[in-house]
Design brief:
By secondary structure, the protein is an alpha/beta fold. The chain is 36% helix and 20% strand.
């Protein structure tokens, strides 16, 4: 099955193009679940399927992921009747790109897909809460040319935990959902703070930064667990953040502020230049209000700055020691990898280093617990 899937994946855009053409011609009623332009959608299904195939022999990790996807897919209007249509088009695509296709391979794929569909359908049917929440933009603040901080007010109560992410859709880009981590822990008033960076070619992020206004309505999908926060631990915290990965780190900080237990928190925030430290004023306010919080800013490409110089992982290692800490590293992939490598070499147990990767486009969660933004 992996070899067969690899043949289709090797065809690049041809395989997803064939799949969606087959699906929309055979089942035109499914077209309404997808955006008008498929330019940002075409390869998403095959990326997700590839990750599922990679874990097909590890059901302990795969089943919870499928359950989460099943619950999350309700926001697209997906119902049980859609799954057989998708399965038929998937098998047609896999057969089309494999000269060695045979009855046994077809039977194996059919059985595997039926299992995947069953797990997702059962999770969706047993899910608590609505498929999505309507929310109003009550604040929109441009912090830099390409970064905005949005404050959203859900119309109905929405439960989430620090470190989770929430998918978001705007009517300016219908049926295109992107994931963002709230920058706050749950509050009695339900307000959410979202940090958005506009990326070149990113239709949703560009709309959220440059077009969405106060009073606009958005839709929020069910929260999904990406960054696993250990709320039971009383260890001191080390938070390392780059870019809008700061939002996830800030939500953990907000949880400690609201609920404790009392502990030391050291937050390191990295950017290329001082002007990219879009949340500096608020973080300095928090550090002034809480004696247990230390915030260190670092710049990697700003020779005129009086702040710490260097990549954030390098600057972080000038402090410490960190071996007794719970660590959360969030931001671009290279930054996260550098941070993890340095801390593990420093003696921090790998299981106490939790990560979330933010990168352009962040359409959906991956199956390994990390996401892309």
């Amino acid at each position: 099955m992996r070899a067969n899937f690899g043949k289709a994946s090797a065809m690049g855009d041809e395989a997803p193009l064939y799949f969606y053409t087959h699906l929309f011609l055979a089942h035109p009623e499914t077209r309404q679940m997808f955006p008008v332009s498929m330019a940002h959608q075409r390869d998403r299904l095959f990326q997700a399927l590839g990750e599922v195939v990679a874990r097909v022999d590890d059901l302990d990790s795969l089943v919870p992921i499928l359950q989460q996807l099943g619950r999350d897919h309700r926001k697209f209007g997906t119902v049980a009747a859609h799954y057989p249509a998708v399965g038929a088009s998937l098998l047609a695509t896999l057969e089309h790109f494999d000269d060695g296709w045979n009855e046994q391979l077809a039977a194996d794929w059919t059985a595997a897909y039926q299992l995947v569909a069953q797990v997702m359908v059962e999770a969706a049917e047993s899910a608590d809460g609505p498929p999505w929440w309507d929310a109003v933009v009550v604040g929109h603040e441009r912090r830099t040319f390409d970064v905005a901080v949005l404050r959203l007010q859900p119309k109905e109560p929405m439960d989430f935990v620090p470190g989770e992410s929430i998918s978001l859709e705007t009517e300016r880009r219908p049926r295109l959902w992107r994931y963002y981590s709230p920058a706050n822990a749950p509050r009695p008033d339900g307000l959410l703070e979202i940090h958005v960076k506009a990326h070149d070619g990113g239709p949703v992020s560009s709309a959220l930064v440059r077009q969405v206004q106060v009073g606009d309505e958005l839709r929020l999908g069910p929260p999904v667990g990406h960054l696993s926060f250990d709320a039971e631990s009383d260890r001191d915290l080390l938070l390392v953040a780059g870019g809008t990965g700061l939002a996830a780190a800030k939500s953990l900080l907000d949880h400690v502020t609201q609920h404790g237990p009392p502990r030391r928190v050291d937050l390191f925030v990295g950017a290329r230049t001082e002007e990219h430290l879009y949340d500096r004023e608020d973080l300095e306010r928090l550090a002034a209000e809480h004696s247990w919080l230390s915030v260190t800013f670092a710049v990697s490409e700003d020779s005129w700055s009086t702040l710490e110089h260097g990549h954030i992982a390098e600057v972080m290692m000038r402090g410490g020691p960190w071996t007794s800490r719970d660590v959360y590293a969030v931001g671009p992939g290279p930054m996260v990898e550098d941070t993890v490598a340095r801390l593990v070499a420093h003696g921090v147990p790998r299981q106490r280093v939790r990560t979330e990767v933010f990168a352009p486009s962040r359409p959906s969660p991956t199956v390994d617990g990390e996401v892309t933004s």
